[in-house]
Design a protein that fits this description.
Helix content is about 35%, strand content about 20%. The protein is an alpha/beta fold and about 220 residues long. The protein starts with a strand and ends with a strand. The protein binds NADP nicotinamide-adenine-dinucleotide phosphate (NAP).
Length: about 220
């Protein structure tokens, strides 16, 4: 496939780019700073574009089939608006450039009340720290459900991200869930496994217009 990767310079985004190339896809990495992409590959193009500009994204999206987004915004922003504002531009550009498929990541607990009962560390340390990020992720999820039924989107919710090597296992999956409730689920998941799961969704319709929480064992 011809895939656009947003947040390609980020930690998960780099895993997405590497694995997509390994799988034989053509990748266009959309970044604000092209110098950050050190990888070289015949099937990799690096394009500088503003993720908040539907016009710039439309130009970059032409001729592609799918968008994978691993964008992340700072918890210091008050309020955090990057998720919703970039998604509005992405959806407009997808329509203009006639792309249908979008896989985007958020996180466990985008409904912060779901963290109650998940332990002291989660509820009283983690959630207050990243509340503004989670809130805007949730706003983006709600915006997709309300305003983007014409697109084939999937939202992937992982728990804590690590930079461990790819684990050879299919993640536990729970549709429409704030977290994976399975007692076997680990708290952390390698970014490489998230990237692999996101790429695996592109040709699939299992979670189209759905949210899915994932975890490794
Ligand atoms: N940390 C965790 O444990 C955890 C758990 C679950 C979910 N998540 C979420 O998963 C996502 C990916 O996480 P990550 O750690 O892989 O992310 P990351 O390494 O922080 O990468 C974030 C990416 O977003 C890009 N970005 C941010 N603001 C931008 C802007 N204004 N214009 C263009 N690009 C912009 C960054 O570009 P630059 O390289 O140019 O800065 C980078 O490519 C994030 O949304 C994160 O909140 C994190």
């Amino acid at each position: 496939m011809k895939i656009v990767v947003l947040g390609a310079s980020g930690q998960t985004g780099q895993c997405v780019v590497t694995q997509a190339l390994e799988q034989g896809h053509s990748v266009t990495a959309i970044v604000r700073n092209p110098d950050k992409i050190k990888q070289k590959h015949d099937n990799l193009s690096v394009v500088k574009a503003d993720i908040f500009s539907a016009e710039e994204l439309t130009a970059a999206f032409q001729g592609h089939e799918a968008v994978v987004s691993a964008l992340g915004f700072s918890r210091s922003d008050n309020p955090v608006t990057g998720y919703t504002e970039s998604m509005k531009a992405v959806a407009a550009a997808m329509r203009a450039a006639q792309l249908q498929r979008l896989v985007v990541m958020t996180a466990f607990y985008t409904d912060i009340t779901s963290a109650q009962g998940r332990g002291f560390l989660v509820n009283w340390i983690l959630i207050p720290l990243i509340k503004r990020v989670l809130t805007n992720m949730r706003e983006m999820e709600e915006w997709l459900a309300a305003e983007a039924q014409d697109l084939r989107w999937t939202v992937v919710r992982p728990g804590g991200l690590s930079n461990r090597a790819l684990l050879a296992q299919t993640p536990l999956q729970q549709a429409d869930a704030q977290f994976v409730a399975d007692p076997a689920a680990a708290t952390m998941i390698p970014r490489a496994n998230v990237a692999q799961f996101m790429l695996a969704q592109l040709p699939e319709d299992t979670y189209t217009r759905q949210v899915v929480a994932i975890a490794v064992k």
